[in-house]
Amino acid sequence: MPGEEHDHNAEQFETTGSGASHTFPSQAGAIKKGGYCMLKGKPCRVVDHSTSKTGKHGHAKAHIVGLDVFTNKKYEDMCPTSHNMMVPIVTRTEYQLIGIDEGFVNLLTESGDTKDDLKLPTDADGSLDETAKKIKELYDAGNPILVTVLAACGEEKIITCRPMTEAN
Q1: How many CB atoms are located within 10 Å of the residue 110 CB?
Q2: I need a surface site. Which of 16, 29, 93, 104 has the fewest CB within 10 A?
Q3: Which H/E stretch holds residue 114?
């Protein structure tokens, strides 16, 4: 039956991860404070959201203010509440730190593989930020460390760290 074979191929195509989008659409009126949205092409956490009344042209406007999840830079946008805005898919993952090598961290994934493509976090000037300093301090003291990595739109950044305890 040719129809069954076609369904099987479509199923295989759907399960592949390549080409998956980093964002999804959501109505501007549905975006809330504390959530995420794309502002000026950057993934942002919404810190302020206000809605104006319908005007002469019949659309209520949403005024959204957000902070870039990677740089903390402030972005603003105004959009009719009925229009779609893109919302980034933001994930947080914890990894165990196993080494630091020339500004890059060596991390251990849950599956036991290593992840070596992340740099220690830096501030706007390019110098190590507070999280990076804390990571180096804990690492130099010989403590096992868990780092939390925030990922959105194909970018990743270490946002926090904490000493690993026996319960982890």
Answers
A1: 9
A2: 16
A3: strand 114-119
